[in-house]
Amino acid sequence: MGGVAALVIYKNRPALAEERGDKLELTLPDGARARVRPKDVLFLHPGPARLPLEVPEGEEEAAWELLQGQAVSLKELAELVYGAYTPEAAYGAYLLAQRGERFVLEGDRVRARTPEELAALLRAKRAREEREQAFQEAVGRLKEGRWLPEDRPLLAEAEALAWGERRESRLMRALALPETPEAAHAFLLRLGLWRWENPHPRRLGLPLTPPDLPLPPLPEEAREDLTHLPAFAVDDEGSQDPDDAVYAERVPEGFRLLVHVADVAALVPPGSPQDLEALRRGANLYLPEGTVPMLPQAATERLGLGLREVSPALTFELWVSEEGELLRERLYPSWVRVQRLTYREALGEPALGPLAALAQAFHRKRLAQGALDLALPEVKVRLEEGRVRLTPLPPYESRLWVREAMLLAGYAAAHLALREGLPFPFATQEAPSRRVEGEGLAAMWEQRKLLKRAQLKAVPAPHKGLGLPLYAQVTSPLRRYLDLVAHQQLRAWLRGEKPLSQEELLQRVGAAEAVADLVREAERKSKLHWTLIHLLQEGYEGPGVLVERRGGQGVFLLPELGLSAQVALAQPLPLNAEVRLRFLEADLANLEARFALV
């Protein structure tokens, strides 16, 4: 290049190049300078050249007709198209090759496309232009809130974003809308394309169909026959998966309590396909639309207590003092004959009298040990034939009877595991940062906010919220994976077999808890979603209880809806004051509702 500025291409832009030893010194179009190796540039013309460059008019089509299918140098192409080899002509030839229509750059040479290639290229270009025009026309319609059937494939992109199945959307960008699932959901609602769709479980990546896996037959083993004793599976009306049943009687030292639990581990051993699938799901997914089980449907049909005349169970036989002290426990497989009752029906069952007395004793003991007794209103949300049904759950005393029996079984199982050195998923909870003084829903609301998250650990620790020094969840193996793991460990111990190691248990605890968190989030959001739809369908005016003050706003609990709402206060109100609230509007995409004082 000998001190003369040559023309090169560097990073797709023209530059002037001068030799400086074994490198080139470049002057870029904006005046900046750079030192590069010769192999980093494409040589166009030896110079002298100047920037900027003005490309002359040329005969591109005539040159292409002459060269069809042949390859030439950039110098030859410049001479054919522009009639001369100047820096401007060389740059023009480069631009023609870069454009890639009639000519295409291949290394440092240029190939003229064949007529067939060019025709195909032009057809593809026209198709792209037509698609772009159709896209822009669709965007124009959608901005006006209109859509046509031919827009449906385009709208599928927004739907995929709303379902959480993609993270970006050209359509949402073109509409100047955020590329979020919530914004896509709101957009689809405005169009009328979506109405009541619940995207939350799918958005969280949860399976929405039952597992399709066979179950082995029940193993041949000794089971104690308890079919001569009463046993009651007590649950909410409409419950489809009864996995525990209870019976208590008075004995000289206090009470004898039998807690029968569906013997799921008899059919689902560790590492089996059914076990691994249950681990992947973490827990049953309870949605207002229906339940998605973690185990094959046959597990409930064959093991659910009271669904057949006689059921296999794992029985926790516990002896408890009059003061609620656990004296001793025994664990064994059994056959039981179970009667199913609702909580309301249980109140009228005389045979449950000893259970009521035992439950009260154990409840008092837990309270004396620091247990928190939070009883905030609960509402069951069900979708039935296109209508949303909200059913407040009455605080029947029978709920306490069953709950205390289940807690006793978990307390006894944790003691057994600790005593026997059995790796076990212990449920633990640290004490809240403070105890709330006061009464009513406001105090419970405040106390719940101060609760520490309960955790499952392989090392035992107190569960302060329950007032228990040890605890494990063992009474819902049809519904929760880690209850099933606890049963697998207990069964291995009973049979003298090798249980899961501490490391294997920890792996299962971590994986199951991660999925169970998603299940709980999907359940919470789905319940709120369908509650908002109920409000949109039916409207609402009813009681609200003030549980918190935030400046000029009040947080109200609506017991009939199972909702909390923040409402502007026209005047100060005392905590626990009951007012009437009216539903105003709902933002379904963002799961928000607005209420006002009547």
Task: Write a structural description.
With 598 residues, the protein is α+β, with helices and mostly antiparallel strands. The chain has 16 helices and 26 strands. The chain has a 5-stranded antiparallel sheet with strand order 4-3-2-1-5, with helices on one face. Strands 9-16-15-12-11 form a 5-stranded mixed sheet. A 5-stranded antiparallel sheet has the order 24-23-22-25-26. A hairpin with a 2-residue loop joins strand 2 (13-20) and strand 3. Helix 2 packs across helix 3 (87-99), helix 5 (152-162) packs across helix 7 and helix 12 packs across helix 13 (397-420). The longest helix has 37 residues, at 502-538. It starts with 5 loop residues before the first strand and ends with a strand.
- Tell me the radius of gyration: 36 Å
Contiguous helical run count: 16
Category by helix and strand content: alpha+beta
Strand order of the largest sheet: 4-3-2-1-5
Q: What is the share of helical residues?
A: 25-40%
How many β-strand stretches? 26
The shape, in one word, is elongated
Mean pLDDT across all residues, rounded?
94
Assembly state (oligomeric): single chain
Q: List the uncertain runs.
A: none
Major sheet: 5 strands, antiparallel
Q: Which percent range describes the beta-strand content?
A: 15-25%
Give the distance, in angstroms, between the N- and C-terminal Cα atoms.
88 Å
Domain RNB: 223-496
Protein name: RNB domain-containing ribonuclease
InterPro entries: HTH_RNase_II (IPR056404), NA-bd_OB-fold (IPR012340), RNase_II/R (IPR001900), RNase_II_C_S1 (IPR040596), RNR_Ribonuclease (IPR050180), WH-like_DNA-bd_sf (IPR036388)
